[in-house]
Amino acid sequence: MQKKDILLMSGAFLVAAATGFGTHVGFNAVLLFVLSAVSLVLVAMIVGKATEQLGSRMGPAATGVLQSALGNLPELFVCIFALRAGLVTVVKAALIGSILGNSVLVFGLAILFGGLKNGRQYFHSEPPKMNAILMILAFAAMAVPTLTFYFHTPAESHINMLDIIVSVVLLIVFGAFLSFSIKGDTSVIPNDDTEKHEANWSMPVTLIVLAAAGIGAAFVSDWFVEALKPAMDSLGINDVFAGLIVVAIAGNAIENLVGIQLALKNKADYAVSVIMNSSLQIALVVYPLLILISFFLGGAILSFVLSPLLLAALALSVLVSAFIVFDGESIWLEGVALIGLYIIIAAAFWWG
């Protein structure tokens, strides 16, 4: 294990310990929220490191499976604890915010910085096309309960059952996508450009770190949610903005950093893959899984029914990112436009 890995884990342990101590003794709400957010980011980084080490022994396809299963672990825990606390609006906004943040903000930053440093960037268009098409289909499926609710169709009184059906279908679609990907079809996963990394952690160390990070993510997520509401009240931040911007960015910190770093290194294929796959995992796995779990938590029941503005934000994020990836190239100006769109949407939610 390298020195920087030890420093990361030591820092994460110290910040998490400070967060736990502050939660029990009653630190200032804003300070506690900042500490818990930093802890969440550090734990997410450790999960990412451990997943990379484990995946380096299994090849690129298996690594993708691991990333889909473990990459969104901190955010999944945050949403579970938020649902138990009754913060269903925050959870909905956080899930849509994760898709919006990856597809618009992070994609825009990656294109901007990558373009400024490396000029026009090119990438295989087929893998992101596949992701974009699946995201459009996922949006269509997720929009049906919202349209059912607002247009008062006969299915409105059965909205919970409709949510369950949509959730199961989306999970099956993701399972099919994983099966297709694991077979190594180069139209989805171009193996020729995959950079090989040698594992420098032993397997027992990797598994121990991964298990510890998973347990740590559960505790830190609980503290994060406990600090969230008092901090929001203290800062005057509404539930929707907190979920859409703050929780979404904190929960997806590692994917955000990796995507931008890859673009700066002129690895456009990898950058686009990481960013697009993260959004796809939220839409096809995390959101439907949380809906199914919410029926057994004893707290708020999560639904695909969104406010009109949240639904519009989701549609914009999916369609705009799809248009950009279809030609297989990007310029920094497209990044500026994406970042501008994200700022406009965020500003609209500042007032609720």
In terms of DSSP E residues, the strand content is: under 5%
State the separation between the terminal residues, measured CA to CA: 46 Å
SSE ordering? HHHHHEHHHHHHHEH
Shape type? globular
State the helix count.
Answer: 13
- Poorly predicted sequence stretches spanning 5 or more consecutive residues: none
Helix content: over 70%
Strand order, largest beta sheet: 1-2
User: What is the number of beta strands?
Assistant: 2
Average pLDDT level: 81
Report the C-alpha radius of gyration, rounded.
20 Å
- Major sheet, described briefly? 2 strands, antiparallel
Global structural class = mainly alpha
Task: Explain what this protein looks like in three dimensions.
The chain has 352 residues and is mostly helical. Helices cover 79% and strands 1% of the residues. Strands 1-2 form a two-stranded antiparallel sheet. The protein is globular. The model has no long low-confidence stretch (mean pLDDT 81).
Give a quick summary of the entry.
This protein is an all-alpha fold and 352 residues long. Helix content is 79%, strand content 1%. It is built from 13 helices and 2 strands, in the order αααααβαααααααβα.
Tags for this model:
two-stranded antiparallel ribbon; 13 helices; 352 residues
Topology (SSEs and partners):
Layout: H1 3-25, H2 29-55, H3 59-70, H4 73-84, H5 88-118, E1 121-122, H6 126-150, H7 159-182, H8 203-235, H9 239-251, H10 253-264, H11 268-297, H12 308-325, E2 329-330, H13 332-349
Antiparallel strand pairs: 1-2
